Amino acid sequence: MFQFITSDTNIAYKLNIIEYLPYILLIIIIIVLFIYGYIRIKYGFWAIQPVFHVYNIGYMIFPPGIIDHNLPDVNKYTNFKDIDTIVFDKMTKIKTTKFIHFIKTNYLQNKDNTFSPKSANIVPYFKGHSALSFVSFYTEDSVLFDTTDKNSIPDIIPNKKIIGLMTSRPLHIVINGKTGANFDAYYVDYLCVDTNYRKKGIAPQIIQTHHYNQRYNNKNIIVSLFKREDELTGIVPLCVYSTYGFPVTKWTKPNDLLGNLSLLEISPQNFHLLLDFIKNTRSKFDIFINTDISNIIELIKSKNIFIYVILLEHQIVCAYFYRKSCVFVEKNMEVLSCFASINETSELNDVFIHGFKLSFWIIADKNYFGFCAIENISDNNIIIDNLILKTRPSIISPTAYFFYNFAYPTFKAEKVFILN
Description:
Layout: H1 7-42, H2 44-47, H3 57-61, E1 65-66, E2 83-87, H4 93-106, E3 113-115, E4 134-146, E5 155-175, E6 182-193, H5 202-217, E7 224-229, E8 239-247, E9 261-265, H6 271-281, E10 287-290, H7 293-301, E11 305-312, E12 315-329, E13 333-343, H8 349-367, E14 369-375, H9 380-387, E15 395-404, E16 406-407, E17 416-419
Parallel strand pairs: 6-7, 10-17, 13-14
Antiparallel strand pairs: 1-16, 2-4, 3-12, 4-5, 5-6, 5-10, 7-15, 8-14, 8-15, 9-11, 11-12, 12-13
């Protein structure tokens, strides 16, 4: 039997909704307050920062972009006594040596992997920028003993022991679509604290003081970009995705490309070819983030990033972006990370996948990489979907980017391109 809804039934239904509306609103308010309280307790520092919290419903409906246009104020987290922020290019050789040593000792060190960079793997990331890069040091007073003269009492030498640090370097950001936003931001990197001083509230002080000094030293850039792995905070991310790790011991050398297809390594001499391709394809992404061209070239020259492209009748149709990670896993095998890719058209998916396998093999063979990491961002999802058909990933790690002092809805990872 069919049941016909009369106009009286319709009116009664609407009246019921109106009757329960206050209760619905009350439940929503309670949920929002619960989330707010949870974040305040679990992420006390982040709760007062200019970021897009998950309880900011207003930002979800009307994203403001820049949250705070004013220069930051001093608060309980700013620490000018123990923290100094300096321009990266003005660091002395001794300071740079200490900086590198501290990172090697305290950054990304755990039982599963080891981060072991050299100066040549860190310093180039801070060269070739059109704006200043910064580094902040949290130090405490200590002493060294000069024992060169064994016949006298050792001299006491005052020393500043590094307890924690963080860096920031400039990026260019373009949001495609109706907003058409175009602005610069600072990418935060190497935030770390001495293993013996962790869980003492030092990291929040470094972030807050670095942000304060950075804003006052460069008033033209007021947004920062963080990358987070593993545990994600209660902040609405720019994008969220997984990073996949694949052992490559059973991979075999792919066949060469056939016909009118060819593989080309990008160098400073032919970089203009890649630049033209990027200009023609950047609109396929909802947000496009890159560092200065001169910085990218510096990273290519120093072999910290590797870029390969596929040519179809002398025109680029695919591009692959790899990073020397300096991370060693599984019996000291270094990780080669594919952090971005561009596939001009889905009609070339098979060629695109083949080009990845061939370019990865060439780079790994020449530079002794023994493990593959792929971030599921930009067009890398096409590659990952193919690889997992035959190779089981040994690592799947949640990864996210999030803005500091900028609120915008989350982008799909395949619509995000980041080259830095």
